[in-house]
Amino acid sequence: MIEGIKGAIERVSKDVSKDRVTLGIDLSDDYAQISYMSVQDKEPETVALDDQGERLLIPAVLAKKYGEDLWTYGEEALSLVQENDGFLIDHLLNRAREGNFVEVEAKDYNPVDLLALFLKRCLSRASGFASLEKVAAIVITIEEPDGAMIEALSKAIATLRIKPERVYFQSHAESVYHYILQQSPELWNHDVLVCDMQNRGMHVMMFQKNNQTHPVVLLMKEQWFPDFLPEDFVYARSPEGRKEQKDQELRTILYSFLDGRICSSVYLLGDGFEGDWYPESLKYLCRGRRAFRGNNLYSKGACYGAKDKLVAYEVEKHHVFLGKDKLKYNLGMEVVRENINSYMVLLDAGKNWYDSFRECDLILDQEDSLQIIVTPLDGKKMREVIIHLTGMPVRPPRASRVHLEVRMLSEALVRIVVTDLGFGEFFPSSGLVWTNEFEL
């Protein structure tokens, strides 16, 4: 819940009715959190575990009751294990990513199936405000997506009653981007700082705008502080000297990011920022800046991102986020359409690399190669990558049809797959497939 410390046009689908909802799911090895909004709402709500709306995090664990085929999740799973009546399965996200089967009572379970079960139970909480049939788009946000993580999540989603084309993935950084753009412009006219305190350290992200470009580009500078860990100061069990030392350490970190820069707002995320142990840091933060703290920024940002897939936010048309997960190159080809030379886009810069995929059919003239044009966004010279179709059968001009697939394997590695389709009954397919991978 984000709280102060001090002081549309339809895009994709015409069937997005007013009762449709979008979901943002923040997922980690520690917890899950769900925010939701209808296509006509201006701000998401976060699913709470209590009537007071204070407990927003679902522990990311499952438990199997000893001797029975009974599974629980979240807080119920922790209670079952605490009562010594069940087997706990934690680190669901990382287990699914690694793919190693989990043994429970002499039986092996697919970790992707376990992750799917956890997601299914979490989504059951959404039934109170919308059935899955009314969900128009879901964005799952995780800290740092990679190919293995996206593949595991995609397999888990495929087992649920959700159309895969309605599910998207984005990093925590991109969720922050979507969130801040939906706040009052005075909160992001200049830089925005986010401090996320976790059990493995503090993740600091500084979002910086380049107003000299069109659209306006937002870049992120980040740094991990693994030794700056949450401490329990709530009941003053630690001496005052330790609080003062921790406060000074935080102020030093903040100073390293904020000194000499104009920063509009600061967000402090995580339960570690609860309490009043950092008064000097807070005074420093609030000098000409707005400061906020909470723990549902990521899920709300994911929800905004999901809605933007359906209803174009005007502000997002004029901004682009180029985080480390974003493709920073345009890929295309020179083709002939209706006897006119033209440029065909294959992959667009600015999209998440793990969402960047294109397939199409091409008719070759007399070539036995394809030329892929790579254009970087940083103004450097574009280059051509030649894909040689070695062994392509000799045919008359325009009698060879090929299927082209272009997919990003990482933020800098692209795979090109070309399949010979032949040309009807006169020139059957040779069955040849050419695969080429290259660094951008």
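(ticket continues) Second input and output from the same batch:
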Amino acid sequence: MRFKDNKAIYLQIADLLCDDILHQKLLEDERIPSVREYASQVEVNANTCARAYDLLQNQDIIYTKRGLGYFVSVGAKSAIQKMKRKEFMDETLPDVARQMVSLNISMDELTQGIIKYQSGQSPK
């Protein structure tokens, strides 16, 4: 797997797992791959993967059952949505707003672009 240089790999792994939960590839109370299995899948050191799992466990996104492995926590999807929404509003939206102002993009143009994106069309 290819990782970006601007963000720690363990954070990117945590994001991948969160995306799988958001897109319901991993469901609540479902077992997720072990640290070693997932590390092998994404081609990273098991310690890096363990760090991502620890982070997600501390955020109550996943939990462990002794001897059985890691599982997706009940309410994980809504917790991730809440966390990602805050991150979007605090970090992404200010940049988007700045770009809109500097490029003179109206709210109507933005809305139309989002509608096209949601329908699978290229927003031009």
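Agent notes: The radius of gyration is 18 Å. The mean pLDDT is 94. Closing as not reproducible unless the customer responds.
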